[in-house]
Every structure is written in structure tokens, then in C-alpha cells.
Amino acid sequence: MEKVFVLAPDSFKESMSAKKACEAMERGIRKVLPKAEIHHVPMADGGEGTVDALVDGSGGTRIAVSVSGPIATEKVTAYFGLLPDNQTAVIEMAKANGLELLPEDKRNPLITSTYGTGEMIKAALDQGAKKIIIGIGGSATNDGGAGMAQALGIRLLDKENNELPVGGGALSKLAKIDVTTIDPRIADTEIIIASDVTNPLTGPNGASVVFAPQKGATAGLVEKLEENLVHYAQVIKKELGIDIKNHPGAGAAGGLGAGLLVFTGAKMRSGIELVIELTHLEEMITKADYVFTGEGSIDYQTKFGKAPYGVAKLAEKHQKPVFACAGHMGEHVETLYEEGMTAIFSILSKPSSLEDALKKGEENLEQLVENIVRVLCIK
Fold first, then answer.
1. Of 323, 310, 276, 290, residue with least CA distance to 6
2. Which residues contact 275 (CB under 8 A, 6 or more apart)?
3. Coil, strand or helix: which one is 21?
4. Helices H, strands E: what count in the chain?
5. In the chain, at which end, N or C, are there fewer CB atoms within 10 A of the end residue's CB?
6. Nearest one of 230, 248, 232, 249 to 240, comparing CA atoms
7. What percent of the chain has pLDDT over 90?
8. What is the pLDDT of residue 357?
């Protein structure tokens, strides 16, 4: 009987998508076992690559949309996924309002906004979605999800009943919130936040202090953004009766987590658990002889919700060997052997520049998997 392989890698960042990684792994296997039964299950953990993993893993479709970028006056072309049931949409906020969309000299969380994310939600509703999964990693924003709320029709008003401009810098003027004008379809839509970030909205572990410096904020700006989010949370509590300030995960994506929880009634789920569930990975692993996973970098932090960890725990549950392939093996990687991983390998066979390693990622991964399978075939 032919061996059964389940390939469940995450993306290798700038080197290859999760789908391309699956294809490289398969080429390596087939050099040794040309008749092997091979199943591709591209993975993601709620961040970059989540839409592609779920669309590729389920046979869904990509829907292109033009929406407001991180700076709301500038448009970007993005896309979201529609799964085969035609009622489940998958959105990555970073495709509309992500940090990578902005050059460094334009990164300013006082003015960046999640407005485009709200437009993507509306576009998904226009496609008939009744369930929307939103991956919220990689944001350029610190507006508490205010822009997203405004795009969905919510009115954020100052003392004179003027609508606030978008961006994290305007929240200090927030006095009233009118939710009666929200898109009525939201009430009939299940919205799920795919994220493993547990940071609260404010405080020393909150959105501004922890994440805003990565988005272009100086120390002075961080203080201002923190004051604004504290004020934002106070007005939400006064106007809507919801105390969001310390809710785990509210600080994700510059507080977009808070905005989604407050204004759309969203629920939070572990990103990797969601992807595993929607791709039916566990069912495939039960029938596998070997499981392969991997991503660009693997280290002790992998066990905090990263895709290879989720795959390894599932393989361990069903007593299947799982081999992890990494572009870079970091600190204390040996701790992952206690988390279900059978063996962890670097795909690099010799010292090389980062540019060369990224360029030859697929070739190196293919060669590594071929070598692992040759060892597995030793009688």
C-alpha cells in the first residue's frame, strides 16, 4: 500500500506561499515515492496568508475589491475569499490597511485608518456572506477600529455633532456614538476574529504601547495614541454600556479587535484552530502515515499559536510523525519536541545571503523533503 502524506505548511514569508510550499514538498516526495498519496492542506494562523490558505484548501474563490488603504484618501486593490458554500467570506485586514502597504516615510498611526477593512466587510456582505472571518494581523493602524465602524455606517461625533475624521489622532474629540445607522446586515451576520493576540486595548500591554512604535509612532505619539484609546474606551462605556478596555485581544491590530467586538458583536477564535477546522485537517491526519509542516522561521515562540504548532499538536493527538521544515531555526527550538514535533530541519543546505535563501526557497525545501523521505524509506 502506498504511503499517505499530509502537507500542511504555513507560508515562508517572502519566499513562497503555503500553496507553493506544498507543491515543493510534493516534488521532493515524488522523487522517492512517485505513487505516494499526497494531500495539500495550506495553513495560516489568522495573519498573512489566511485568505489564500482557506481559499486554496477549500476550492473557494477570490473576490477583488478597490478599497481605502491605510491612508484613507488613497485607494488599494485588495481581495477577500469566498468559500464554496458562498456564505462564508474570509478577509485579511492587512490587504486593505496593512503596514506593508505603506513606505516608512508615510507610516503615521495618527492618520492611518481601518476604513478600508470596513469596506471589505461591506463587499463581503454584498456577495451574500452570512459568516465573515477576519484575520487582523499586520495592521498599519491604531484607531481602535473606528474607521471600520465608520465605513459600516456608525456615526462617531464630536461635541458639536460633527463626524470625526478617520485616524487614531481624531479619537480625542469623540463625544457621541450613533449605532442606529450601522449597515443592518451586520445584525444577521456571524463575524469571527481570527487572532492569537491577547493584548488589551490600553495600558502597558495595550495596542499603543506595544504595537504603535512598529507602525511609525515616536514616544510622544505613543503617549497621545494611548490617551486617545483610553478616551475612546470611556466613551464606548458611557454611550454603549460596554467595558472593552481590558478585554483580551481588544488591542489586536491597533484596537481593531475592540472595534469589531463592540460594533459587530464579533467573537474571537484562535487563528490556527479556525484554519484547521475549516480545512478538515484533522480528518486527513487520521489517515496519514506522515505529516509535513513548516514556515519561514521556527523557534520557541512557535508554540504560541503558530501554524506548525497547531499541526504538530493534531498529529501528536493521532500519534502521527510530523516533520517541520524552516527557513530559519531560532532559539530553544528543542522545546518543540515536547509539543508533538518529531523532527525539525532547516531548509538551508549551505551558508547563503538572505536574498539567495528567499530566491531558492522552493528548491531548497524540495531537496530537504526528498532527503527526509529517503531516510523514511530505509528498511
1. 290
2. 43, 44, 45, 46, 50, 53, 54, 57, 194, 281, 307, 310
3. helix
4. 12, 13
5. C
6. 232
7. 79
8. 77
C-alpha cell at 12: 515562508
CB half-sphere exposure, 237, CA atoms < 13 A: 11
Q: And the C-alpha cell for 139?
A: 495592521
pLDDT tens-digit series, residues 345-366:
999 887 878 788 788 889 999 9
pLDDT 10s digits, 116-174: 999 999 999 999 999 999 999 889 999 999 999 999 999 999 999 999 999 999 999 99
* Cα 311 to Cα 8, 43, 76, 295, distances in angstroms: 7, 9, 34, 12
Beta strands in 227-342 (DSSP E): 267-269, 290-298, 322-329
Give me the residues paired with residue 193 across strands. 134, 268
Q: Report the SS3 class of residue 368.
A: helix
Q: At what angle do helices 50-58 and 18-30 cross, to 10 degrees?
A: 50
Phi/psi zone of residue 108: left (φ > 0), alpha (ψ -120 to 50 degrees), beta? beta
Which strand (E) or helix (H) includes residue 281? Answer: helix 281-285
The pairing of beta strand 322-329 with beta strand 343-346: parallel
From the list 274, 343, 330, the residue with the least C-alpha distance to 302 is 330
Residues 6+ apart with CB under 8 A from 48: 11, 13, 92, 94, 135, 137, 138
**CA–CA dist 121, 93 (Å, integer):** 10
- Asked if 167 and 174 touch (Cβ cutoff 8 Å), the reply is no
For residue 196, what pLDDT is reported? 78
Alpha-carbon span 349 to 370, nearest angstrom: 13
Sheet with 88-92, edge to edge strand ranges: 61-68, 75-82, 88-92, 131-135, 190-194, 267-269
Question: b or e along 236-248 (b: 16 or more beta carbons within 10 Å of the residue's beta carbon)?
Answer: beebeeeebbebe
pLDDT, tens only, 38-84: 999 999 888 788 999 899 888 899 999 999 999 999 999 999 999 99
**Whole-angstrom distance, CA of residue 361 vs CA of residue 120:** 32
Q: Is 153 left (phi over 0), alpha (psi -120 to 50) or beta?
A: left
